[in-house]
Amino acid sequence: MSTLRRLWRSGTGRFGILVVGLIALAALVSLVWTPFDPASVDARSRWFGPSWPHLLGTDGNGRDILSLLMAGAQTTVVVAVGAGVVASLLGIALATLGALTARWVRESIAVLVDILVAFPVLIIAMMITAVWGGSLAVVIWSVGIGFGVTIARVTRPELRRVLHSDFVLAGRASGLTPAQNLLRHLLPNVAPVFIVQLSWGMAVAVLAEAGLSYLGFGAPLTQPSWGVLLSDLQAYIAVHPLAVVWPGLAITVTVLGLNLLGDALRDAADPTLAERTPQARTHVPGVVA
After folding, report:
1. Where in the numbering of this chain does the ABC transmembrane type-1 domain appear (predicted)?
2. Among 41-45, 66-70, 151-155, 166-170, where is mean pLDDT lowest?
3. What confidence tens digit (pLDDT) does each residue in 120-178 have?
4. Which of 131, 173, 193, 273 counts the most CB atoms within 10 A of its CB?
5. Centroid of chain to Cα 41
6. Cα 229 vs. chain centroid, distance in angstroms?
């Protein structure tokens, strides 16, 4: 609870919580209700400006833009969470193998990670989608793998640093197994670094989905997506510029909110920041006699 209170007191943390919470709420609500049917076409309502009952206006097919944004939030949440899970599992696995195993295994993992990290995440996603076709599953796996490697590269040296700390050595002396030491001592102390990388990866996942959908490699055209909506509206930007603002603004604010929330979580969870509490305390477990 103290971490949540510190997070809420932070301006960036509060902004991130509100943005991410609003997107998640919109995605949940759109499962059961939207102001209008996102797939409903009404030629008599084409290119309405923001007014009642179309609060954000309509597109060239007469579809309500607010309803499309709410339905598209489902795609955004699925991609962000899915890519985050894949990146977390892969990143932690590679970092653990690269930090806690035999020397030849560590060096092999380090070389593999250095090779894979040289390829930009979006390039990897475009190559995979070009071969396997466009779908949300391909976007999730490609972005998750790309950022899992990045997480491993950043987390591995932190694990090596914490591995030689006094409290880890004390844990070994008390009889903890390597797995117990990893879960109780190592991962909590590298969590701040991991959180920042994970939030960045989820933000890039949102951008990747929107960009790939914009190019026709992401979500199917029948599935609401902010990237697909942006692609549909950009052809009319000279005539109806306001309509293009809404999906672009949704993508921008979501990415900004994820990044700021990650930074605030790092500051709130980092046990080494003295300014957090009057007397800073590091994660030092008690030694079992």
Report:
1. 73-262
2. 166-170
3. 777 777 777 777 777 788 888 888 888 889 889 888 888 888 877 877 778 777 877 77
4. 193
5. 33
6. 21
Of 266, 264, 257, 267, whose CA–CA distance to 20 is shortest? 257
**Cα–Cα dist 246/99, whole Å:** 45
What pLDDT does 273 receive? 56
Rounded-to-10 torsion of CA 153, 92, 126, 134: 180
Peptide bond into 53 cis (omega under 30): yes
d(CA 148, CA 201): 8
Please enumerate, as own/partner, the contacts of 99-105 that have beta carbons within 8 Å and a separation of 24 or more.
99/156, 99/157, 99/159, 99/160, 99/163, 100/159, 100/163, 100/178, 100/182
User: CB–CB of 284/207 below 8 Å?
Assistant: no
Q: If you ran DSSP here, which 8-state letter would residue 140 be given?
A: H
Partnered with residue 279 across adjacent β-strands are: none
Phi and psi of 271, rounded to 5°? -75, -5
Domain extents in the chain: 68-270
Q: Are 144 and 86 in contact (CB under 8 A)?
A: yes
Is the bond into 224 cis (omega within 30 degrees of 0)? Answer: no
- Helix (H) or strand (E) holding 199, with range, is helix 187-215
- How does 190-205 read in b/e, with b if 16+ C-beta sit within 10 Å? bbbbbbbbbbbbbbbb
CA–CA separation, 249 and 65 (whole Å): 13
pTM: 0.84
Structure-token pair, residue 224: 């609401």
Q: Which CATH superfamily is domain 68-270 in?
A: MetI-like (1.10.3720.10)
∠ CA 147-30-201, rounded to 5°: 10
